[in-house]
């Protein structure tokens, strides 16, 4: 994953720490990742400056935190390093319950039959998962908003964003890496992260080399850091930040105290030097996906101009709540044109993507005029006289089964940026006449269901360098 904070200052202190390790300081024989987090604090007197894992730096302007991944000599905590997210005694008690039996099941008996092996493996897996589930119930992490959360919260987020009823068991060791330890501790002490990095120490292997810096891992940290930070950061430099907005979160502040939590407020909380109005575009609260924001006024102005001038390219993935084809018709698989409502399917191109359902790809263009329904805000309604034109290119991907009903995956490319443009292109009778799955405004939403609409691609010119920037982000839900 992309490093959430600048690494420059932290690397300076990491090199100093490497020198200490070479000279035989504690944990010099450790094999694994070390992490350094440099933080600012409005007032060092407000934090526990005497804590043995907090070191002051730059004439008390910053504090430096250190962490190591996993355990060292079977211990989670050591003097001079931030504590783990789990209590050692509670962890040991849970492990002890099934540990002996798991080790017994790990031994392969002589003359074991295939059936016996399958039964032994199944029981071992059950006990391991049972232990792991109980271990994860112990973890607590302090987030950027000051709230203390657990893995139940994280699992609910993953379940909601994926649009499924199933919960995946988190990988072993999630929460034991340096980054979640450092950030959780910093937020618990009202510290402001400035620079963070991790480096590998110990015997080099195929994946890691001693003394080399690495970003937080995709396998585990990518699951937990967005919850701790309040943001999934895909890119960041001195001028801009690109994030993956979750469904259910506002893009910008709304009216009222209950609508202040949003992407903008979370960016400004993590990066206090950000301008007051960093947003250059918006996504609906229920839409997930790529958003770009600016740290500086100049970057904000230049990016906003690109959006106004149509120089920003965007694509979305949507799942429509129905089959985008008339019953019995083949949607142009023979090259003919099939009409659906006011939409014409163009000539098809065969595409074998290995997915179930139709692999025929059809595409077209929608131009519809909409305006605000003043009697039913925030709904938009079709109005060919007073409405503003919304132009959308579309491409049908496939028809498949979702929750035992036919749905259609579609890629949208909006050429304009009208309110609810894509939701209306899908749901209105002048468009497809089929709402997006989970659309609580123009369709139907089951309890606990999210809108299956995701901003998957964005391209623009960097406001400072002029370089063309491209970002892609797959949706968490199946499509």
Would you write up a description of this structure?
This protein is α+β, with helices and mostly antiparallel strands and 479 residues long. The chain folds into four domains: 8-86 and 139-229, no CATH class; 89-136; 233-307, Pseudouridine synthase (2-Layer Sandwich), CATH 3.30.2350; 322-434, no CATH class. It is built from nine helices and 19 strands. The protein has helices at residues 8-22, 88-106, 114-136, 151-162, 178-188, 221-229, 263-270, 297-308, 421-427; strands spanning 32-40, 55-57, 62-68, 141-142, 148-149, 192-201, 213-214, 233-236, 240-245, 288-294, 313-320, 339-340, 343-344, 362-372, 380-382, 388-402, 405-414, 453-461, 468-472. Strands 8, 9, 10, 11, 14, 15, 16, 17, 18 and 19 form a ten-stranded mixed β-sheet that branches. Strand 14 and strand 15 (380-382) form a beta hairpin. The longest helix has 23 residues, at 114-136. The two termini are 23 Å apart. The model is unreliable at 331-342 and 344-360 (pLDDT under 50).
């Amino acid at each position: 994953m992309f490093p959430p904070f600048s690494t420059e200052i932290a690397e300076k202190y990491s090199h100093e720490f490497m020198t200490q390790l070479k000279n035989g300081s504690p944990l010099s024989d450790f094999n694994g990742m070390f992490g350094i987090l440099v933080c600012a604090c409005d007032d060092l007197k407000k934090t526990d400056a005497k804590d043995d894992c907090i070191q002051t730096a730059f004439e008390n302007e910053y504090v430096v935190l250190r962490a190591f991944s996993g355990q060292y000599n079977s211990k989670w905590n050591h003097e001079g390093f931030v504590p783990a997210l789990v209590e050692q005694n509670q962890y040991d008690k849970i492990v002890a319950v099934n540990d002996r039996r798991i080790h017994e099941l790990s031994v392969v008996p002589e003359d074991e039959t295939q059936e016996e092996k399958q039964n032994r493996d199944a029981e071992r897996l059950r006990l391991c998962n049972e232990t792991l589930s109980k271990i994860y119930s112990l973890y607590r992490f302090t987030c950027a908003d000051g709230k203390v959360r657990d893995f139940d919260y994280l699992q609910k987020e993953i379940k909601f964003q994926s649009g499924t009823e199933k919960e995946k068991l988190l990988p072993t060791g999630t929460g034991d890496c340096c980054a979640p330890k450092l950030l959780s501790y910093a937020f618990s002490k009202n510290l402001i992260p400035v620079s963070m990095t991790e480096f590998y120490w110990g015997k080099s292997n195929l994946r890691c080399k001693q003394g080399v810096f690495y970003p937080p891992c995709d396998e585990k940290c990518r699951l937990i850091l967005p919850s701790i930070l309040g943001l999934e950061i895909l890119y960041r430099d001195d001028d801009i930040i690109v994030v993956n907005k979750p469904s259910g979160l506002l893009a910008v502040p709304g009216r009222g105290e209950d609508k202040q939590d949003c992407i903008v407020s979370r960016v400004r909380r993590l990066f206090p030097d950000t301008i007051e109005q960093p947003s250059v575009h918006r996504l609906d609260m229920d839409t997930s996906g790529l958003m770009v924001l600016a740290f500086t006024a100049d970057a904000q102005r230049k990016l906003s101009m690109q959006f106004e001038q149509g120089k920003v390219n965007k694509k979305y993935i949507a799942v429509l709540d129905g089959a985008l084809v008339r019953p019995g018709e083949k949607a142009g698989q023979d090259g003919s044109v099939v009409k659906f409502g006011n939409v014409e399917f163009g000539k098809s191109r065969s595409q074998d993507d290995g997915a179930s359902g139709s692999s025929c790809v059809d595409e077209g263009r929608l131009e519809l005029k909409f305006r605000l329904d003043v009697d039913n805000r925030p709904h938009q309604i079709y109005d060919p006289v007073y409405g503003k034109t919304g132009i959308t290119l579309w491409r049908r991907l496939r028809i498949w089964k979702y929750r035992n009903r036919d749905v259609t995956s579609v890629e949208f490319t909006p050429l304009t940026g009208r309110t609810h443009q894509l939701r209306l292109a899908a749901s209105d009778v002048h468009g497809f006449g089929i709402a997006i799955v989970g659309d609580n405004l123009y369709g139907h939403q089951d309890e606990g269901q999210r809108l299956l609409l995701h901003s998957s691609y964005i391209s623009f010119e960097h406001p400072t360098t002029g370089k063309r920037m491209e970002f892609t982000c797959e949706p968490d839900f199946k499509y």
